[in-house]
Specification:
It is built from 20 helices and eleven strands. The protein is an alpha/beta fold. Among the domains are: 188 residues, Hypothetical protein af1432 (Orthogonal Bundle), CATH 1.10.3210; 109 residues, Beta-Lactamase (2-Layer Sandwich), CATH 3.30.450.
Length: 508
Amino acid sequence: MAPNVYSEKKRILIADDSPINREILMDILGNGFDYVEAFDGVEATEILENENEEISLVLLDINMPRADGFEVLEAMNKNRWIDDTPVIIISAAQDVDFAERAYNLGVTDYISRPFDVHIVRRRVQNTLMLYEKQRRLLGLVGEQVREVQKTASMMINILSHIVEFQNEESGPHIQHIRVITELFLKALGQIYPEYKFTQEDINLIGTASALHDIGKITIPTSILNKPGRLTPEEFAVMKTHSAAGAAMLDALPLYKDEPLVKLGYQICRWHHERYDGRGYPDGLKGDDIPIAAQVVSLADVYDALTSERAYKKAFSHEKAIEMIKNGECGTFNPRLIYMLDSVADELYSRLNGAPENELDDDMRKLTAEILQKNDITYTGRTAAILEKERKKYTFFTSVSSDVMFELSYKPYILTFLNDAHKRIGAKHTLVSDPLDSDELIQCCGKDKLQDIATLLAKSTPGNPIIAYEGEINIDGGKHLCKLVAQSLWTDSSKPEMTGAIGKIFIIE
């Protein structure tokens, strides 16, 4: 994920075959950024491949040698870089089809040359601000997802201990099944995209896999922990655990329609079915067996082979893989066998001390999916918001002679619209607490700034408008002015002020 755009100097990649164009853009945006330049699309793609996490924004031309801007966008989509790195097209191409194609490929904004200097600067700032807010939202949702994961893990541990009272080896077995199941699902989805497993699917099936053996609490311990082979009669009793576990879940009137319970039912009842129809309890065959049950079945067999049981010693990883591929443990879906062979090395490392550093990546993917389901996307929606804001500001600033501004909190960013900053002798954008700004103190005075800040702090979502009169240095002299502003708030059960918009006009 790209770095916090306000905690350090933002890095902008400018890809344009014209050195003059690149120089103009850097001059417009000023010294507040760290620039990386690319002469063509090939060079831009190489930079993104090596430095994607450090790039906060890409300013991209369309017509370039070797590879054009569209080819860069295609590479960014293929590698998912565009999910976290916004792109603004800046091009002389006026073709409407070009703009539509660019938006379809995920660009945030499209600016045609010749352009207004202030518009470019403003739209770059808006894009960086919007993406930073989305990253904060991603982090908040990610924390909620982690809490859900902690709850699910706690449930798995409880189930492990419950079954462990009956079956001495089931505790670690349940933990192993989840790890193996999630690994298999990821690999299966990559090899066979038609399965379309999302990260949410993988997490849900992985959690539900903990339920696969809950029916064993109905099996006598004399059978569960018997050393050596079971008699046909004992095996018949053992086989009832799959249907018993499914019946337990089906008897939950309040939760039986929940996705987790539905998956748990499938896994409980059918994880001992076999692809050739020789499994139990229902003799399902082929793809009539739900894929979640098929995957957990393979995970169950592998872990049983590689674990020590009361009736056998553990087989090696290599021997277990060989036995499954040779059909010594029943018939499995050929796709699952191919997948197993492709992840054999990773499977061994995951169960033998490999670091669990994939969790953060899983959470990021799952969070992104949740956000997308709630229509919070990084492409079309972002572009629409920015275009609406651009039109709004362009209109109001063009018809007003007032000093108009926008203030954002956390971090502080004060932006003057159009050329208003020149009228009060300040920079176009100030990135600091206004109370500590020497330029604003010289313009208004420390006391006036404090009075305005106090009024804003006392505003509420129901009464957000404030007004203040006082002398301000504007247009080269001191004038009696009025400031009118509206505080902005989050739309939540506990609203927080996010900033303010307002204007200053001379009344004397």
